[in-house]
Structure formats: C-alpha cells, structure tokens
Give the backbone structure.
Amino acid sequence: MTWNRKHLLDIESLSAAEIMMVLDTARAFKAVGARAIKKVPALRGKTVVNLFVEPSTRTRISFELAAQRLTADVINFSAEASSLKKGETLKDTARNLEALNADIIIIRHSASGAPHFLARFLNASVINAGDGAHEHPTQALLDTFTILEKKGKIAGLHVTILGDILYSRVARSNIWALTKLGAKVTLCGPSTLVPKIFEQMGCRVTHNVDEAIADADIINLLRIQHERQRKSMFPSLGEYTSLFGLNKARLEKTKPDALIMHPGPINRGVEIDSEIADCSRSVILEQVTNGLAVRMAVLFLVNGGKGPQEIAA
Amino acid sequence: MTWNRKHLLDIESLSAAEIMMVLDTARAFKAVGARAIKKVPALRGKTVVNLFVEPSTRTRISFELAAQRLTADVINFSAEASSLKKGETLKDTARNLEALNADIIIIRHSASGAPHFLARFLNASVINAGDGAHEHPTQALLDTFTILEKKGKIAGLHVTILGDILYSRVARSNIWALTKLGAKVTLCGPSTLVPKIFEQMGCRVTHNVDEAIADADIINLLRIQHERQRKSMFPSLGEYTSLFGLNKARLEKTKPDALIMHPGPINRGVEIDSEIADCSRSVILEQVTNGLAVRMAVLFLVNGGKGPQEIAA
Amino acid sequence: MTWNRKHLLDIESLSAAEIMMVLDTARAFKAVGARAIKKVPALRGKTVVNLFVEPSTRTRISFELAAQRLTADVINFSAEASSLKKGETLKDTARNLEALNADIIIIRHSASGAPHFLARFLNASVINAGDGAHEHPTQALLDTFTILEKKGKIAGLHVTILGDILYSRVARSNIWALTKLGAKVTLCGPSTLVPKIFEQMGCRVTHNVDEAIADADIINLLRIQHERQRKSMFPSLGEYTSLFGLNKARLEKTKPDALIMHPGPINRGVEIDSEIADCSRSVILEQVTNGLAVRMAVLFLVNGGKGPQEIAA
C-alpha cells in the first residue's frame, strides 16, 4: 500500500491501514530525531504555512519544528494584525497564500470544517491542526503512536478518556482513531460535558470515574478549559477536581500498568494531581516528542512521500 | 546595462531601463518558483531584516518568502513590543540592526520618506516596502510585471486606477512606473479622493467612472480603507459602491480583454463585485505570485546581482 | 584548557579563564561575521529555542541571528498568547520544549534564578538572557569583549558604571566579569539606585559623578528605565539628567581616551547627550556587533564546542 491523500483533514475518513501508515512513517522519523543532525532534506525548497487563525503556541511550534527538520521553509501567519482583521475572507487569505506558492497550509481555526472548506478549492495540501470542536487529527495520531509504542498494540485495549468531551476535538479524533484500530473506548466526565449521544460513536459513556478507570489500559485526561466552561458547565473547579480529578487514591484502583496521557497544557491540581503528572506511568512528555515525529510523517506524506520505506536509514 | 543601485527607495528616481531590468530579472525568478525545489543560493549567508514599523502581514510574508528562496537568513522586527516602543529613535533602531551585520533592511513605515532617511546613513541596502502615502515601489513593479506578462507590452496601453488615489502609495508608484514606460494613466474616484492636482503627474483625472473605464486596457482597483476614510471623505460605503464599485453592468461597458487588477486585500461587495474578483479577466492572484518574483529580483539586485543573465537556468 | 559547561547561567560562577575562553571564541566568530557568507555549519540540525517570558526584541534578535549563523534551527517562544498564559508552569513549559528535542533553551525571565531553576532538571543546555535584576551574562561578556578589543587589556583598567545599578542585571554581570579579570569598578548614580552595599562586591560606590568619571578608562552608562523608576526613585527625569547625565561639560573632564559604552536602547537627552552617543569615543554600536559574536561563541561552547581552535579559519 502507498499513501495517496493530498490532505489530512480528519481521522474519520482515514482507513485503519492509512492510520497505521502514518504511525509507521512517524516511527522512522522518530529515529531521525535521535540523530546528532536531526534533519532530512525531504521537503527542501517547499513552503509550509502555519495559518493559525485560532492562537496556539505549542501545536504551531511542533509543526514549525517538524517542517524545519524536513528542511522546508516555514511561514507563520497568525490572525492578529493580518488581512483577516481587515475583513478579508478566509478563502481569499488561503488563495493568497497559495498564490505565494505555498505547498502545504496547516490551518487551525475555531470553525469546524474550515480545513475541509480550504481543501475544496486549494491546490496546496491542507493539514487540519484543530478545527473547532470537530477534529484534531495529528493529536489523535500522536496519542495512538504513543499507545502503540508503549503497549505494542491498539486492538483490544481499553482506553478511557476523562474530562470535557463535548467541546473536545481531541476526544473526537481519538475516538475515531481508537475505534478504527480496534480499541474499546470509555468516555467519562460530568454529564453536562459527556452526553449519552457519544454512544453513537461506539463508545461507552459513564459519569462514574471509578468505574471508568477500573480496568482501563490507558487513561487519557483532557484539559479542563476553566477559562471558558467553568461557569455554565459545572459548579466549580474544586468540585470537578474532587469528582473527576485523577488523584493518588483513584490511581491506586487502576491497573498497575495503566498509562496516564494528557494532550497538555496540564492544569496541575485540577484534572490531574501534580505527582501523578510526573510519575513513571505518565507518558505526557513522550506524547510531545512523538507529536513531532507524527507531524513530520504527515508533512512528508501529504507532500507525496510514499511511506516509511522512503526515509533514508 | 548592469544594475548599480544599492537601495530601492521609490519608482520616481528609476529610469525606464532600470524598471525593465527588475522585470526581466523577476521573470527569471518566476521560473525558479515553478521548480520542484524553489530555491537558489544567491543570498546564502546574507541577513535580511523586515523592519515593519507599520503592520502588514501580506507584504511582510511576500518579502520573507522571497528572502528564504534566495537562501538568506530573515529576521522579522515589528514595532510592537520593540525598542521603538521604549522611545528609541528610528535611526538608532536601524543602526542597531546594521550593527548586527544586516545586509538588507526592508522598511515599512507610516512616515513618507522614512526609507530615504535610512538610506542616507546606512551601509546596508534599504528597500521601501511602503512609506506613508508616498511610494510602494515593489507593488508598482509587480503590477507592471503582470501587465507586461499579460499584454506583452506597456507602452501605449491605457491604465485606469480607480478608488482612493489621494492616500495611496500604490497609486503614486504605479503612476511613476506606467508613465515612464509609456502607458496612458487615468485616475478616477470621488473628487475628495482624486484631486485635479494629479494631472501634474501626467495623468488624466475624471470623476466619471464609465468614462474612465470605457477604453481602458487595465482597470486597477484600489482598496477602500473604510476603517479610516469613510467618515470624512465620502458619505457612505454604500454610496461609494454604487458610484464607483466595479459591478457587472459596468464591466460590460469595458473592453472585452481589459484586465482587472487589485493590490489586495479586496473588499468584496465594496470596490469590486464578488464575481468580478473571481472572473477570468481578474489577475489579482497572479499579482500575488508575481510579487514574490519581483521581490526576489529586488533583493538580488540591491545585493549586487548584475541582472537576469546571472540567474542559473 | 577546554570548555566543559553545559549551561551559561551567570558570570558569578565562571573563572577568569572561562571568561577569556568565551572572548577568544567570540573573536574567531567575529571574523566569520566579516565574510561574504556569514555562516558556519557548527550547529546544523540543532534546535535553539528563544524562550522569552519577558519581552525583548533586541536581545532576542541577536540570539536568533547568532543561531542562524551557526546553521541551527531557531524557534521563538514568547509568553504572550502561549501556554504560560493558560496557567502552565514554567517547568512544564520548559520540559515540553525539551520534549520537542530542543538542544539549547535561551531564557529571559523577570524572576531572578529562573535559568538556574531550569538547568536543575533539563537535559538541554540553558543560556541566561537576563533574569530579573540578577544577571545578564552575555551582555557582560560582550561589554568585556569590547573593552578588551579597544584597550588590549582588562586588568588594571578603571571602569565606571553610571545609572540605575540597583535594578540592573547588566551592572551585576559586569561587576562580576570586570573584577574577575582585574579591573577596578566604580558605581555611581542617585543614592536610591546605588546603595553602599555594592561595596561588598568589590566596587567603589560614589554619588558624585565628576569624581566617578574623572579617571575612568571606560564609562558604561545604564539606561534609565523611566517607565518604571522615575516616580519613586528620583524626583524627575530632568533632575536625573542634570545630576548624572553624560553631557559635553562632563565629558571634557574625563580622560581623552575614555570609552563611552551603553547596553541600549539609549535615551538621547536623558542619561546621555545625543552628540556624545554619536561621538568617536562611543562604542555603543560596536557593542551590538560584538554581542552577535559573543552569542555565537556561547551557543557554540554550550553545545560541546571545545574552544576557538575548532572554528575553521
């Protein structure tokens, strides 16, 4: 099998084999990251644009470094002080970037579907770096990569995602990736943030955290975006922490080899106890490292790379 | 003839032969942009600084990409949060950048003459990326390049510039370039924005749009900066659109091969109907592509490049 | 002797021999800056992060250019709109950057000791680009480099630092460097900004400017940060200028070959008369040029460079 997609818009439309090809390619690039000279010339002379209409330092930097390590030229375009502020449409902004011979446009946008919209009319490749509450495909790929690397498999594992599911593109992309690869997914959190309708995506939904984590192989904690949701969705941060936060007492009731994951940035003392974030079962920083490899893989593949066999050993 | 200017400060002081040399060099660089690896090593080890005291995302990115494709190192210096905010003079800021071994300083500034001021004391090359209402030479060069490419000549063509002429550096630079190359220029817009005094620059001035566009080979629409001018210069945006906006009815009265140009970002539904912006006679996006080639040419020439014959085929 | 420090956290812990090794290495890199192609491949494939939690355009650009000239990949991370704003701890931010395989993290922070804190848990190299009122080691190194280049020696020279000493990391780092290398240091300024306790660092403290500069070989003027200190620390800017500003009358009472230094950005007409800033005895812009060479040296050494002998001639 060879890769033949020009865009990476979501996980929903990928096959299990395509997901595995990204992970296999990422594995080859992770080895590059361990070399003294962490660069390959795969995208030399190509132009990658980070079109971040919604701000994000950490995802932007991860993509920027991934592009640099592929020897691409990278331009950062943020919404502040840009032509978007002058009333230009997103379509015109994107077509202008393409007119500058951009080869790949990485877009983060607060509107669900923005990357799909761009892909309909651009010749450049489009990568979704998070669109509204819809999808964040590279996050799901790096999470899946991390699970596979640690556990040696995905199929048959039990993954519990804990926190704000309703507004989370990370949750949606993870659900797609994990169920396609044969994992069992449980969602847990306050009933306002974890509605029963998610069962239609093939998940178990529960509001009882002890039940959710008891036999989990992976516990993926989502960030409580307390800036936004606290007031309407749950009574207080303290109550969230007491009912759903991962603390030592709860951790003791989990499987001894259950992994702790979190897409970051973490709120120490809110959704996760500080010492649990730093314990040996936490793979939070390895997720960050793997994100770089996964993003190199995605940039490489959408630019015409055929698969891991092409990456010089 | 060989190029021997260290700076590009304006169009006014260029000869027709110099303008043509930039365009010829840009043509060679446009071919580079179509290659799989869009880079040449012409400015390797050189430092280019984007000193944007007035914010501009699109022009800054165009220069940044142009410099990257010449393999230069690029630094972006914006006025916000910089030493300029701490009360440093523009002269001191520029001399500090030069002390960092900057080879080329690209300046955008709200004060007319700021680039000329820098050129008086800097050893580095200075490129004007727009100074107040004075000049925006690379915009005029890319507009001229686009016309030449599409029409095969400049001399004898009739170019109508429509909109806010009074405050427009784009208009002034275009007038200089077009008249030097032998085109006939008509200016049109509300009388508050298109005063008769522009006739002294060798243009025809009219406030009747139908008359202005009737026999034009090129219609160059300027952006109505409604954030700034609406209140004092014309009664309302709606009135501007109805009196001067390019719509379907007006387009039908123009020559069938008249080109539609716009420096962007466009206000769809204000100075231009949305469907006209996207029609086959619109070359708005090609202007953007050509801007990159023109800026590569300018960077190359002020850095000591002799002309198009030096660019490897 | 070979360099064997992984971090550059302060001047206080360096030996005189280590300081001299940085200066010797910087001299070799200054020669590189005079070449047509101002680059060396020493840090190719390495990732340098500018983690500027406190904003600074000029120091950030100097480090960015230094890293580019060593062919490193550089990422700028500023506190605004970043995960730090979302409540992430500095430790987590730094560990995330390290997880992205950052090799060198350059940190500026308003808290004294922030770089030392990072160095305790990071495997990446840490360079202090200014921490609170504590130290700004690369500024002291570039100041020392400039003195050595101009005077041919440091030992035995008399250096007067004039201005706001109390809040100045530049002053503290300079005092350490100069006294270690055998210079005699005098501090002068208003008694609120130059307390007697600095005598414990081996300096002479005086509040009489004429006495302070009379036999100085070097007069290093610090910026009056009038945004911050004016109100509480001295009656008015005008009074400061009249009592401590370096003007023509005062300059005439100094040694004819005394050098005028300033870390910038300068306040013309406040701590320094405009014409003195531009006179032949002022080396303010050479300090900027030397800063680039010193920062290349520091990046090179903390990354495992052994010393100046390694830099290709």
Notes: Residues 247 and 257 of chain B are 16 Å apart (CA to CA). Chain B has two domains: 16-135+291-310, 137-288. The first helix of chain B runs from residue 16 to 33. The two ends of chain B are 20 Å apart (CA to CA).
